[in-house]
Design goal:
The structure is a single chain. The chain is mostly helical and 124 residues long. Helix content is 78%, strand content 0%. It is globular, with a radius of gyration of 16 Å.
């Protein structure tokens, strides 16, 4: 069997770990109706992991394609969550927390894009 045939298994297993880490982080942080700290934190952690470590360092050092796919697509894909970001935004909107909604979306999308840009400029 070719090693490429095992890529989906590596992605699957890493996604399970990423999803578990997301769950644990969300349960460790205090719940707040004013700001979804858990989703915010895991998305920033995912940006760092994907852009800086996986797409930066691991690709630069010539790490195997299977490991890059497992960590990038699997772990980071299981860790981060755009759908939860949108659900949290709708909850803030539905409860009339408009300032929190604006700050959350600005920091999540704008800040996330800025963080990815800054981290992606690192030259190994």
């Amino acid at each position: 069997m070719k090693k490429e045939q095992f890529y989906p298994l590596g992605i699957f297993l890493a996604a399970m770990v990423g999803g578990l880490v997301r769950y644990l982080i969300s349960t460790w942080l205090p719940a707040s109706p004013d700001f979804p700290w858990g989703t915010f934190l895991v998305n920033y952690l995912g940006i760092f992991c994907l852009v800086y470590l996986v797409k930066g360092y691991l690709v630069y050092t010539g790490t195997s394609k299977g490991l890059v796919l497992a960590l990038g697509t699997g772990f980071c894909g299981g860790l981060t969550t755009f759908s939860s970001l949108m659900l949290d935004a709708v909850k803030l909107l539905d409860t009339g927390r408009y300032l929190s909604l604006g700050i959350y979306l600005f920091l999540s999308i704008g800040g996330g894009l800025l963080l990815a840009y800054v981290l992606g400029r690192k030259k190994w």
